[in-house]
Design goal:
single chain, 7-stranded antiparallel sheet, 12 helices
């Protein structure tokens, strides 16, 4: 063997072997946990309904919110809405995120004791199809946990636990009458395993260390894969002679070449996603609920609203000013389907079906609008909701109105605004800045559902298509089979490499 070939083998094989040992840790953890993901998604508990019961609110003769709040000595509020419980209409009054909302009969003004939990239980029964006697407990949740992960985004919620079906838990957002997610013990432990192996949750108490270690190991995987490819082609002329009697090395070499492209794709897209997710978490926009004085509510505005049947009514506060978000009950009720994370196929089908129905009745669509709740005006701006979203973004980004180029409605999950963001409908507010930033604002709550820049959009595209292979033309079952097979083959290559290492260095 020539001196040059010996030098190549010494330098590249030495680093490939030793870096590969540490890279094996990441490949085994990410590969095996990645294999669990399609299983987890298929074993996800499925709701029997994807949208809350439709209701039409008749408010003729109802007490005004100002009167109800005054009668019960409630001086401030952060959000008001209408809820239907047992065929009665209630005013739901929230004064912050730390305590459950209170409910008052709009016709009598009387309070419904424990109204928020009763509403949560009724919605949980609706979404799961279970009976009242199946409920074991209901708990008010104000923080994310191992049982209710931050990926679910919505807080506060009620955790309604059932006795059967592996301790099924439904997480309910009563403010917007929607299901956030369903979890049972099987899903809990699969998620626990996935979070441990894929997100390295055992380091989550030190986020910077978690990201740093994971990024370091991903870099080792990339270097190991590239060095393996270099060795394959550099030593290919002598491979047949050298490996004639080394069956294990031949398998490692051949399989390594076959999966090398997926190794590079998985690791590169994973590293990009890891870094961007960390940066996005640090830049997350959360608007703390602000309070408005109940005394400034204008009864004349309410009396105008009470004349017509309503499908939805919310009072929310922006810069200490209360606004009514109004959806008339005329025409087709256009409430979009709130999809549950990880129930992609069923939820997408339900949402698309709902969307198609709306398209066939486009001429009858009900259009939401917003009114100042403290000032009466006969004029209703056709862009009132868009104006509200514009003001919300201006307050967040400290920009001038001329920097906003477009405001558009988003009523279904698609493209960069996927079902992971939970909230619908939202308004996309497009800025003219260096990052091409767009905010997605939920008008019924004023919440920022998402903030996306071009680099965020690119990362989402890379992660969806290169890491998860979410091609629209590729059948979901076939996609999961292919991704799982390549993940498994990467694990096999890593284990073969580890076995070769132990045979050489551990006697």
């Amino acid at each position: 063997m020539s001196k040059r070939l010996q030098q190549v083998r010494f330098n590249w094989l030495f680093w490939h072997r030793w870096l590969g040992v540490f890279a094996c840790i990441g490949i085994l953890m990410w590969g095996l946990s990645g294999l669990s993901h399609p299983i987890m998604s298929r074993l996800q508990p499925k709701p029997v309904a994807f949208v809350a019961p439709q209701a039409t609110f008749e408010l003729v003769g109802a007490h005004t919110p100002k009167q109800i709040l005054a009668d019960h000595q409630i001086s401030t509020f952060s959000h008001l809405s209408l809820s239907r419980i047992a065929d009665k209409t209630y005013l739901r009054v929230a004064t912050g995120e730390a305590t459950p909302a209170r409910y008052f009969d709009v016709m009598t003004g009387d309070e419904l004791p424990n109204g928020d939990v009763l509403n949560a239980r009724a919605l949980a029964l609706h979404f799961t199809g279970r009976a009242e006697g199946d409920i074991e407990s209901a708990t008010f949740i104000t923080a994310f946990s191992d049982d209710y992960h931050a990926v679910n985004r919505l807080l506060p919620v009620w955790r309604v636990a059932f006795k059967q079906d592996g301790n099924l838990r439904a997480f309910i957002d009563t403010e917007q009458t929607r299901l956030s997610t369903l979890v049972n013990d099987r899903r809990f432990w699969l998620t626990k395993f996935f979070q441990f192996g894929h997100n390295w949750s055992f380091l989550s108490h030190v986020p910077t260390l978690q990201v740093g270690v994971a990024a370091f190991v991903l870099s080792l995987i990339l270097i190991s894969a590239l060095s393996g490819l270099y060795l394959f082609f550099k030593l290919s002329n002598t491979a047949k002679f050298r490996l004639e009697k080394l069956k294990l090395r031949r398998w490692h070499r051949t399989l390594g070449l076959l999966v090398s492209l997926t190794t590079l794709v998985f690791a590169t897209s994973g590293l990009f996603h890891l870094i961007m997710s960390h940066l996005q978490d640090r830049d997350t926009v959360h608007i703390q609920p602000t309070l408005a004085q109940a005394s400034i509510l204008n009864d004349q505005v309410w009396q105008g609203l009470a004349k017509l049947p309503l499908a939805k009514l919310d009072a929310l506060v922006q810069a200490n000013v209360p606004y009514w978000y109004v959806l008339p009950a005329t025409g087709v009720n256009q409430m979009p389907v709130a999809q549950v994370a990880a129930i992609a196929t069923e939820a997408e089908h339900a949402e698309h079906q709902n969307h198609d129905v709306h398209d066939r009745h486009a001429q009858a669509k009900a259009t939401p609008y917003m009114l100042r709740a403290d000032q009466y005006s006969k004029e209703i701006s056709s862009n009132s909701v868009e104006d509200f979203a514009t003001r919300q973004v201006k307050s967040l980004s400290k920009i001038s109105e001329s920097s906003i180029s477009e405001v558009t409605w988003v009523t279904r999950f698609a493209d960069e605004y996927g079902f992971i963001f939970k909230r619908l409908p939202v308004l996309k507010v497009q800025l003219e800045d260096a990052d091409n930033t767009r905010y997605y604002i939920e008008p019924a709550t004023g919440a920022v559902a998402a903030k996306v820049r071009d680099i965020d959009g690119m990362e989402g595209f890379v992660f969806a298509y290169l890491h998860k292979w979410s091609f629209e033309s590729l059948n979901k079952d076939l996609r999961d089979i292919l991704v799982s097979l390549f993940a498994l083959w990467n694990v096999v290559v890593a284990m073969l490499g580890l076995l070769l290492f132990t045979r050489k260095y551990i006697k």
